[in-house]
Structure formats: C-alpha cells, structure tokens
C-alpha cells in the first residue's frame, strides 16, 4: 500500500486489491485458529492473550492504510477517519475490563468487519482497482460515524455494568469509570487537531502520520490489556500524549502564521520517532519483567 499509493491518491491496480484481500484472509484465519489451538492443547496463557490482542492493535492501523490506498481519498481524510476508527477497539477492552469478558456484537465483531473489508476489496479488484471519486469520502465518513456509534455502545455498556454493580472491579460510580478513558479521548482530540492543522503535510506524508498514530495506539491499548489481565487499576502513560500535544500546539500556532525554526515535516518525524520509542519501551519492559520472573 505504501509503495503503490504513497499519498493515497494514486490508482491501485486490481490485482493488488486481490492480494490485500488474500493477506487479510490469511491474517484472519491465523488469528482465529491460534486461540482455539492454544485452548485445545492447554497452552493458553495471559501472555498469549496480551501478544494476540497487542498484535491486533497494530494491525488495526494497517487495515486503515490498506483501505485508504484503495479508496484514494487522500491523506487528511484518511488520517482523521483512521483516528476515529481505532476508537472501538480500545473501548472494547475497556468494556472487557469491567465485564470480565470480551463482548462482540452480532454484526460488529472483528471477523464481520474483516469479511466486509475483504468483500469491498474483491469488488474493487473486479472493477480494476478504481473507486469513483464521490464514493471514497462517503465510505470514510460512514466508517467514522459507525465507529463513533460503536464507541457510544461501549460507553453505554460500561455505564450499565457500573450502575448495576456488575463491574468485576471495585468501581461504583460511572464518573470514575469514565475518567479511565478520558486521557485516551484527550489523545484523540490532540491528534485530530494536529492532523487538521498540518493538513498540507498530512496530504504529502499520510503513511508516516498513520504509522505514528498506529504505534501510539498500540502502546496505549497494550497497556490497557496488560492492566486488565493483571487485575491492576487502569492508569495512562501520559508520556504518549506529550509529543502529540506538542505537535498540536505547533500545528495551531504555525497555521496562525507564527514563525518556527522547524517545519511540519520535522515535527512529524519527531512524533513518529517518539511513538516508536514509547511502543518499544512498553514491549521491552514486558519482556524484561517476564524474563526476570522466570529467573
């Protein structure tokens, strides 16, 4: 996707759409098989669950890149929609934190979403990889609105669990539960401000924006999953928010005409490197703690 459509405005050949669909099918099959195999052989473990869902959190961003490259809607629309589309995955694990089980809707589960994406790619492949210009923004807007609706569904679910006293954690007020995800909402807001304020750079380097967003999202989601598995209170690594807040402030001030000694591309690379570093630190800390425990 990065090579065929670096700015998400280029035409992607039909054969590439079929390759994308085949890769998603292979991922979906392996992702569904591994858990069943682990339970069948008694090899399932919390570490396996963390690895499984942790990889899923990174793959979510890759799905956005694949679909965006085929739609050809451009980098700004894609980055904005991508940030919103990631929300339900994070909130589903927040809901699981309180419910004690991961609840998927009949038509909103990951398998159904992946099948829909594969079907879309197959149709576009048959059409030679061409999506009408008027369709691309509509698809992104519909996906973003659907993601927001799913976020609302998870918020209502947690509200019901907490107010009815069915949360598996000692949280008795919905306000306390809602504060657990407010830092994530703050990250979403600052990221959207940054993308919109630096829209010209986002149009030139959309993949780098999405890679940075995906890495930061992965680090946040993996930390939430680890806290749920370990039964720890939810806490947020505020270091993740810092580079995005800096980028958002820079974007707003530069858009207002204030001069800076660095350009928006430099800030983009800073955010990407910071996101990569924070994800690497979390992964290495999990490996270190596990190795220390085993010793």
Overview of this protein structure:
- The protein is mainly alpha-helical.
- Helix content is 76%, strand content 0%.
- The protein is built from 12 helices and no strands.
- The longest helix is centred in the last third of the chain and has 31 residues.
- It is globular and about 50 Å long.
- The N and C termini lie far apart (43 Å).
Concise description?
With about 300 residues, this protein is an all-alpha fold. Helices cover about 75% and strands about 0% of the residues.
Gyration radius, in Å: 20 Å
How far is the first residue's CA from the last residue's CA?
43 Å
User: Rough shape?
Assistant: globular
- Percent of residues in helices comes to over 70%
Spell out the helices and strands N to C: HHHHHHHHHHHH
Strand content: under 5%
Question: From the helix content, strand content and strand pairing, which structural class follows?
Answer: mainly alpha
Major pleated sheet: none
* Low-confidence regions: none
Mean pLDDT: 89
Multimeric status of the protein: single chain
DSSP, total strands:
0
Number of helical elements: 12
């Amino acid at each position: 996707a990065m090579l065929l459509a670096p700015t998400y405005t280029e035409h992607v050949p039909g054969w590439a759409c079929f390759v994308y669909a085949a890769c998603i099918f292979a991922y979906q099959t392996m992702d569904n098989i591994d858990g069943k195999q682990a339970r069948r052989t008694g090899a399932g473990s919390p570490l396996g669950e963390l690895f499984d869902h942790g990889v899923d959190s990174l793959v979510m961003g890759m799905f956005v890149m694949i679909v965006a490259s085929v739609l050809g809607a451009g980098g700004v629309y894609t980055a904005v929609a991508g940030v919103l589309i990631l929300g339900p995955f994070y909130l589903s694990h927040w809901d699981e934190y309180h419910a004690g089980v991961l609840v998927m809707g009949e038509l909103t589960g990951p398998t159904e979403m992946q099948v829909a994406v594969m079907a879309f790619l197959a149709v576009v492949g048959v059409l030679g990889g061409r999506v009408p210009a008027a369709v691309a923004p509509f698809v992104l807007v519909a996906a973003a609105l659907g993601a927001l609706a799913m976020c609302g569904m998870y918020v209502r679910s947690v509200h019901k669990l907490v107010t009815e006293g069915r949360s598996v954690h000692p949280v008795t007020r919905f306000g306390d539960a809602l504060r657990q995800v407010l830092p994530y909402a703050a990250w979403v807001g600052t990221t959207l401000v940054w993308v919109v304020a630096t829209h010209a750079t986002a149009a030139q380097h959309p993949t780098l924006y999405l890679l940075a967003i995906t890495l930061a999202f992965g680090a946040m989601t993996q930390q939430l999953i680890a806290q749920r598995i370990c039964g720890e209170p939810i806490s947020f690594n505020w270091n993740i928010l810092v580079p995005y807040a800096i980028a958002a402030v820079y974007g707003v001030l530069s858009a207002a005409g204030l001069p800076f000694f660095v350009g928006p591309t430099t800030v983009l690379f800073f955010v990407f490197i910071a996101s990569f570093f924070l994800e690497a630190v979390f992964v290495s800390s999990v490996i270190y703690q596990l190795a220390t425990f085993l010793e």
